[in-house]
Write a structure and sequence with these properties.
Keywords: Extracellular matrix, Repeat, Secreted, Signal. It comes from Limosa lapponica baueri. The N terminus and C terminus are likely disordered. Among the domains are: 118 residues, Jelly Rolls; 53 residues, no CATH class; 45 residues, no CATH class. 7% of the residues lie in helices and 31% in strands. It is elongated, with a radius of gyration of 60 Å. With 642 residues, the protein is mainly β.
Amino acid sequence: MQRSAHTRFDGMEQIFSYQSIGCDDYLGSDKVIDKCGICGGDNTACKVVSGVFKHTLTNLGYHKIVEIPEGATKINITEMSKSNNYLALRSRSGRSIINGNWAIDRPGRYEGGGTMFTYKRPNEISSTAGESFLADGPTNEVLDVYMIHQQPNPGIHYEYIIPGDNVISPQLLAHRRPGEPLNGQLGMPESTNHEDEDLHRETDTLTGQSAGTFPVIQPGRFPSHQPENQVPAVQPPRQNREYNWKQIGKTECSTTCGKGSQYPVFHCVNRITHEEVSESYCDSSTKPIPEEEACNLFPCPAFWDIGEWSECSKTCGLGMQHRQILCRQMYANRTLTVQQYRCHHLEKPETTSTCQLKICSEWQIRTEWTSCSVPCGVGQRTRDVKCVSNLGDIVDDEECNMKLRPNDIENCDMGPCAKSWFLTEWSDRCSAECGDGVRTRSVVCMTNHVSSLPLEGCGNNRPSETTSCNNGPCAGKVEWFAGAWTQCSTECGSGTQQREVICVRKTEGSFDVLNPYECSYLEKPPSQQSCYLKPCGSKWFHTEWSTCSKSCEGGFRVREVRCLSDDMTASTQCDPQLKPEEKEPCNTQDCIPEIDENCKDKYYNCNVVVQARLCVYTYYKTACCASCTRVANRQPGFLGRR
């Protein structure tokens, strides 16, 4: 876009134009920097480098991902999905730029490698985007990108652009002075020739006025051709030695603290009066180049750097969230993490806070209590308890407060259970080999859980544990004579042993038995002792038989049988083939009908009535009642055949 201005001098009106300056520093040039960073380029002089870092990492800590070369532009380093890992950036010299030395920086803009990097770290709960580094470039040194590995790598996408071979470096364009040679060639358009120089000289002669009223036109910035409607620009008058450049001060410091930069300011002045004049009076080629100077070197006051809040610890209800609070100081355009005591002059922000994303679901009791699991004694009962959202949907129990969950199981007492005496079979052996002895069995009172028998308790009628036995008379002995101990009354467990102890007198070839009082002055040996052969292990026990279900014509009776171990607890180790019967028939005899005193035979020959089958008639049935009734009981249906 062009605009014209009219300036009157010496009665003449000259028209000159102001035009934009291209990336090549020439007035009126339309050249721009392409994506490769090349002035006037066509986007073909560079190469796009991209890829994805998908390596599986095992060790925690810093792992190098990619190297960004010098001169790279359009840099994009992006984590492919959200994770607990962090990206880090440092120069080849080892200087940390972002997230170095295990200190996590806040998202923001960070200078490094001659360009400005934008560090992004999405923190929204619903966001799935990962971290990223973005920079326009170009870089002026090699940079290394790292990942601080803490969980499986989701993948890191990297991309940057580098110039191709024999391409003018973008840095040259950014730092060269107008008119300086570019890659060994003078930075003037090829169409510039000596005719242009003559035009400059003619213009100088024509004006004869102070160059201060004209815009400064520096050498080498003329366009390559003159538009038809444009009047040639006027060249400033030649400078003389009456004027020179003088430093009159410095620019304002770029920062108020923490090491900023400023530059000296040079103006054109009269050598004698030191009065400031237009810069056109001085030779621009002799103007000193301002050099950067450090200023305000004292450190800035420390401040609390407040990070973003973490996700809420609970998806519903009251939870906690955290944020990182670091004490930081600015110095040399960099933010450094320092000891927290430097921020003691400031109140430290809270690092934790309560949060609530939504109202939690609630517990609901869906069913009543079930019946008790046992018919007697202590059992359990249950009910259905569900976690229900505020929309009425059944959700996982974790959605509700587990501390407030109603019980879905509890004990129940159905009262005392019936009890029965449980017995083993009698032992096979008599305690004495001859004479009187005993056989034994085990007796225990047990709770009856499953039997439907009308048992109300064990009571005081404990069945006997011993019964007498006799294997025949024994031979006589001499004095107090103790016979051999009998076998143990039980094959296992606790039992008793017996032996014969008699008072005898020894005679020649025989013994005479005496009355016990004849040996009373002697200590009598014991005739019985306890014995224990081995643990019995599990044995079958059973209750007494129940009452028969019928008094005649075949009923049945039952008893409960259990397998018990030595400590009288339930066991499954008994031999099933030795299990006593739990049910047996009883009262198999025929039923005897009740005798009716009025049912009698009125005739002596009623047997003839029976033989003639006349009992079917009412007269004979009454006259010979006893005989007809008796035959009817033996032959059902006898009376009803006619």
